[in-house]
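ARCHIVE CARD
Drawer: 12
Card no.: 0347
Subject: one protein chain, sequence and derived structure
Cross-reference: see card 0346
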Amino acid sequence: MLQRRTFLIAGLAVATPAYATTVPLPPSLDDLSSLPLQTFTGEATTLGRNLRPGPSVISFWASWCAPCVEEAMHLSTIRHRYDEARLNIIGLNVELVANDEGVRRFLDQTRPTYTQLRADVATYQAFGGEAQLNLPRLFIFDATGRPTAAFGAFDAPSVNRAISNVVS
């Protein structure tokens, strides 16, 4: 009986997909800096205009993404740990269908203390995202703009370690 349970448990473990998704590293920030973005007031901007020299965290989120809420609140905690001069943090909202009410609720709930901009699926794909939007997505870059970590699921301890590795 015990042996049958062991096989059953092992079989379920193999059949169950992992929650964390392997995400490839994106191009460097130099290659991504000209990506067109928009402020929440509708002004055109680029990623590069919103980055200061130094390490960076770029987080893609959407109003319908429940794990994005936890990640956004965690990034606000990170912002309190590292000021803007030491670490860029930018949230990029990607909605498949315009949802201003949902975005407003998300921002009211999470109260992010870091830069928020609107992006589109093409921007998400420029970071190496697949055709289907899978969120959250978080990318960490060192002070030279070289990508050092990519996350396809919220993982606070791993994000904390990856950020501390790039912030001096």
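Annotation on reverse: The helical segments are 2-15, 29-32, 66-81, 100-110, 121-126, 156-166. Residues 21-166 form a domain with the Glutaredoxin fold (CATH 3.40.30.10).
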